[in-house]
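Appendix B, record 7
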Amino acid sequence: MPRAPFILRDVEIPAGTRKTIDLSVGSFSNHMPANIPVHVIHGRTEGPTLFVSAVVHGDEIIGVEIVRRLLATRSWTRLKGTLICIPVVNTFGFISHTRYLPDRRDLNRSFPGAPDGSLAGQLAHVFMRDIVAKCDYGIDLHSAATHRVNLPQVRYNSDTPEMAEMATVFGAPVALEAPLRENSLRAEAANLGVNVLLYESGEALRFDEYAVRIGVRGILNVMGHLGMINKRKLTSSAAKSVTAHRSKWARSPIGGIFRAVKTIGDVVKEGDVLGYISDPFGANEETLTSALEGVIIGRTNLPLVNPGDALFHIALLKKIRVAEEKLSQMEEDIEADPLFDEDEII
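Structure tokens (predicted):
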């Protein structure tokens, strides 16, 4: 018996076909319609339903390129299950190049939303009802906030053993246990029984080739793990992710001009110099040293700092030397991956 069609609102996508659908979320202030663009690939064969979403925060655009390349990697004629790609969730913030919605609400703190709530609440409600509720799994793509940059990393809920395995399979440099935050997409999806990985990488309003490659390869790795596609063979023995169970921020002890000497991906030990903070004249200067041991997974790009500003996000580790070897091997693996040799990625 042929597989039943996938139904999104009043649109049917027959098995073995794909279709782009615009989910209406009202209109902009100039009366132009506002939509969430959704691309559905409904395989001929039964399998899981996975959503891949980006731009929950309007300025975190790196996920748009990851989705584009994901869709271009293959014909998808042998897909088992259903793949739903949503490159732009927060269409309002995306258009205005801002993290939040016009009402200054954070969409990722507005789930599950309500049909008669705020703009953020209505957008969250549509996404939960029309996308999340129809899926088994999800991968949500993010970047650092403005003036920060993140090392590619996967965050997962350690309460679910399956997610810990999927985080490792994804193959980002770091897999970080991260508790579910109230009213976040991950938390509210979990309440529906939908497990979601969160991929963090790069910076706001920028593309980063290394981060994009890891994101595309990671999604394909997860799809192979779920049996949706054939497992890909890498050109080398791909390095495993560095696993961290918690992280902390190193903060500025004073205000001033910050000069960093460490960056994302660097492994630091207690006492290592992270940077220097001085007044604009250079008359007074303070050395910022690490009180932690781990790998830097995020840092500020803004040299102007105030007392208490978050400067370096450090994933805490015990086996420092092993972590250095894994991170180095992973960078070599990504550079050598034949998936990214094709001209069409440019």
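Remarks on this record: DSSP finds seven helices and 19 strands in the chain. The mean pLDDT is 93.
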